[in-house]
């Protein structure tokens, strides 16, 4: 009787084991054969990554090689609110002074929010931008502050799960985007601001993705934007579960081509002299604006071009659109007496007139095309030489 019971148990155990192996075999066939294509695509999307590599924007130099505009690589600081839990206040208190943003504003950004997910689902946001254009030194200070962040607890006595929470908070709650951004720097502040122009951020679609890219908005920055911007590179690779790159699995790795430098005919010393003289005249005579150009007569090279009021291209948004306008090339003005020397020089060169020839200036009132043009003075008959003299 005991042997029969033992046999029955062995048979039952064999049946259960056989059933378990049958279910496992079916599952393997289902994953490896029946759903192979579907799961392969999912696995590829989970591990396959394409990174765009930004080129460094070229420098702008004056005629003697002095730096007028350059670029520095900076960070975009982000946060994962799901890793912060209910510790937003402590994190905001430490990070806000380093990012130079208000603690209240940062506290709002660190608070988890529900956002639409895929397939109509709703999920907690894992990504929020805290600040762009953050210097590398500032990011290093943030890392140090997060590493040393204390919550007033003896974490060694906490359960394992809570210890892991605080570890993940310090390591991953505040992070930076993988690709560095660029900060355009004008070391001489407002010097030659209208010549250089400034840059801004534009949203463009690149390979099906919307990206914020730096582009020239005025002056040399805009005119030579295609040359200064360079050519973007890219990297196609695979990552492991934590998101670390598997270098041996790289498929493509094309380095970006940095932007070209632009060398101007502007001499920063002469430019500074002109701007200083214009500033004195602006203060003395208080005109709406004042402009000046210094050119080399032999070649026509522009050594200095300035107009006041001006602006700081490091912070163009602080100035009005009127102050950012280069009046020397943007405004339309009657040539007036400044153009007489061109006309008279051509006439003398072609032998059309002589310096002693006379013209009736009609007492400063000249009728032309149904309108009366007024001179600055009422002159009668003047010689060509006197016309230039009185201009």
Mean of all residue-level pLDDT scores: 85
CATH architecture of the largest domain: Alpha-Beta Complex
Shape: elongated
Helical coverage, percent range = 25-40%
* CATH-level-4 superfamily name of the largest domain: Penicillin-binding protein 2a (Domain 2)
By DSSP (H or I, 4+ residues per run), the number of helices equals 14
Note down, in words, how this protein is organized.
- It is a single chain.
- The protein has 391 residues and is an alpha+beta fold.
- It folds into 3 domains: 33 residues; 214 residues, Penicillin-binding protein 2a (Domain 2); 58 residues, no CATH class.
- It has 14 helices and 20 strands.
- The strands form 7 sheets. Strands 2, 3, 6, 7, 8 and 14 form a 6-stranded mixed β-sheet that branches. Strands 1, 11, 12 and 13 form a 4-stranded antiparallel β-sheet that branches.
- The chain is elongated and about 145 Å long.
- The protein starts with a helix and ends with a helix.
Gist of the model:
The protein has 391 residues and is of the alpha+beta class. The protein contains 14 helices and 20 strands.
Question: Any key phrases for this structure?
Answer:
alpha+beta, 37% helix, 4-stranded antiparallel β-sheet, Penicillin-binding protein 2a (Domain 2), 14 helices
């Amino acid at each position: 009787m005991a042997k029969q019971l033992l046999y029955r148990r062995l048979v039952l155990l064999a049946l259960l084991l056989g059933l378990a192996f049958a279910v496992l075999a079916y599952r393997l066939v289902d994953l490896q054969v029946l759903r192979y294509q579907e799961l392969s695509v999912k696995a590829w999307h989970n591990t396959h990554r394409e990174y765009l590599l930004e080129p460094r924007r070229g420098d702008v130099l004056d005629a003697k090689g002095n730096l007028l505009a350059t670029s520095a690589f900076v960070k975009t600081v982000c946060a994962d609110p799901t890793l912060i839990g209910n510790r937003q206040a402590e994190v905001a208190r430490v990070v806000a002074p380093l990012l130079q943003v208000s603690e209240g504003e940062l506290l709002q950004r660190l608070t988890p929010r529900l956002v639409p997910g895929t397939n109509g689902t709703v999920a907690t946001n894992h990504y929020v931008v805290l600040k762009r254009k953050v210097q590398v030194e500032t990011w290093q200070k943030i890392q140090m502050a997060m590493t040393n962040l204390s919550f007033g607890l003896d974490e060694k006595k906490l359960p394992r799960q809570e210890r892991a929470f605080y570890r993940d908070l310090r390591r991953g709650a505040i992070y930076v985007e993988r690709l560095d951004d660029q900060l355009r720097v004008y070391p001489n502040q407002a010097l030659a601001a209208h010549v250089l122009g400034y840059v801004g951020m534009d949203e463009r679609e690149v390979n099906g993705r919307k990206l914020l890219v730096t582009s020239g908005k005025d002056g040399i920055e805009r005119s030579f934007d295609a040359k200064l911007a360079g050519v973007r590179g890219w990297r196609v690779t695979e990552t492991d579960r934590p998101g670390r790159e598997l270098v041996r699995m790289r498929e493509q790795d094309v380095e970006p081509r940095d932007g070209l430098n632009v060398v101007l005919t502007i001499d920063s010393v002469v430019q500074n002299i002109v701007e200083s003289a214009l500033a004195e005249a602006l203060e003395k005579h208080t005109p709406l604006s004042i402009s000046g150009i210094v050119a080399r007569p032999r070649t026509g090279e522009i050594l200095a071009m300035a107009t006041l009021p001006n602006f700081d291209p490091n912070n163009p948004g602080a100035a009005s659109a009127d102050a950012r306008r280069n009046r020397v090339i943007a405004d339309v003005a009657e040539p007036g007496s400044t153009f007489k020397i061109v006309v008279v020089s051509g006439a003398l060169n072609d032998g059309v007139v002589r310096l002693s020839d006379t013209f009736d200036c009609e007492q400063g009132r000249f009728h032309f095309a149904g309108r009366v043009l007024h001179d600055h003075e009422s002159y009668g008959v003047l010689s060509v030489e006197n016309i230039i003299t009185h201009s």
